[in-house]
Specification:
Strand content: 15-25%
Structural class: alpha+beta
Helix content: 40-55%
Oligomer: single chain
Number of domains: 2
Low-confidence stretches: none
Largest sheet: 3 strands, antiparallel
Radius of gyration: 22 Å
Shape: elongated
Strand order of the largest sheet: 3-4-5
Length: 188
């Protein structure tokens, strides 16, 4: 395999991929491992979370794989084609195991965050003289928590909503800790 550095390496960590061919092999590996469960966005996050590849180089490589028929977009996500599978079988040994493991772990983390983001919501409602920010944490179809926050202006409301969307699990956990805090102090 040609290991010449032919890609952008801005923002790539030591041990990361600086070769377009290696980036493509990694995408094919991830598409096979995740069996069409992932979107282009998740694949790009998988190679950039730990700085395994430059975002722009990775984006171009992913588009080239789709354009060449090695990967295909379906309603379920990105899938490895027969052509891509043959290519991967031949070239996978050239991809460091540590890079594969890191990217796969980052893929699972990105998938988890995407599912959390889909199941939780924060909406802003204009009440005339203020705004309500309605934050809801869901598990499956059940609402575990719904919280309405007062915001004096739209900018504050949008900021509150975004902060909730960034880490709804943390907020839910902290709210529940406050409510359960008194349980341990009943006998005190």
């Amino acid at each position: 395999m040609d290991n010449e550095i032919n890609g952008f390496d801005e923002g790539v960590a030591a041990g990361g991929l600086r070769n377009t061919v290696q980036i493509k092999i990694l995408f094919e590996f991830l598409a096979r491992a995740l069996s069409g469960q992932v979107s282009k966005e998740i694949l790009l996050q998988a190679v950039t979370i730990s700085s395994l590849a430059n975002y722009f180089e990775a984006s171009q490589a992913l588009d080239e794989l789709i354009g060449s028929g090695n990967l295909a977009e379906s309603e379920n996500g990105i899938e490895l084609t027969g052509k891509g599978n043959s290519n991967l079988n031949e070239l996978l040994p050239d991809l460091p195991v540590t890079v594969r493991e890191t990217a796969l772990g980052d893929s699972y983390e990105a998938l988890k965050k995407a599912k959390i983001k889909q199941s939780n919501s924060a909406s802003v409602e204009d009440r005339g003289d203020h705004y309500d920010v309605i934050c809801t944490v869901r598990h499956g179809g059940d609402a575990l928590m719904s919280l309405t926050l007062y915001a004096p202006d739209l900018q504050t409301a949008l900021s509150l909503a975004q902060n909730f969307r960034n880490d709804p699990e943390k907020i839910y956990s902290q709210v529940m800790n406050v409510f359960y805090e008194g349980e341990g102090n009943k006998n005190a």
